[in-house]
Amino acid sequence: MTNPLDQPLENDLTAELKERRTGFGKSTVVLGVAVLAIVAFVGGVFVQKSFGSAQNPNRPNAARQFNGTPPSGTNRTNGRGTIGTIDHVEGTTVFVKTQNGEIVKVSTSDSTKFQITSDGKLTDLKPGQQVVVQGQPGEDGTVTAQTLTQRPPNG
Question: Where is composition skewed (Polar residues) in this entry (predicted)?
């Protein structure tokens, strides 16, 4: 009897190894895409936590997008801003007429900043000028102005 290990192999093992394909299989590509998507999602969560806001911020200057007229349904006296036209000025109190015709009493003080194209003062305000008032409303509806900014006329 002869030893089977003494006989040469019928198939050339070196040739078979060279013929083997290189590259990625379908399952490897799918798995890679899934891992990439998960990493992107988790990264987005961390970015939102670091730089995002938990709630939508109130934008007191949003009216600028609408030529000084906020979209309908917007509260024009919301604790952050009042938009309207100066009706009249009595001493240190400015009466602002909103677009819906309501007159809002606005009290000013020495700490109120007046902006009229450049910084101004209370005496620079004239009836008919459009203004944006930023301040806190009191219990009686009077707004205590922190900033009163003259708006350019529409048109």
Answer: 55-72, 143-155
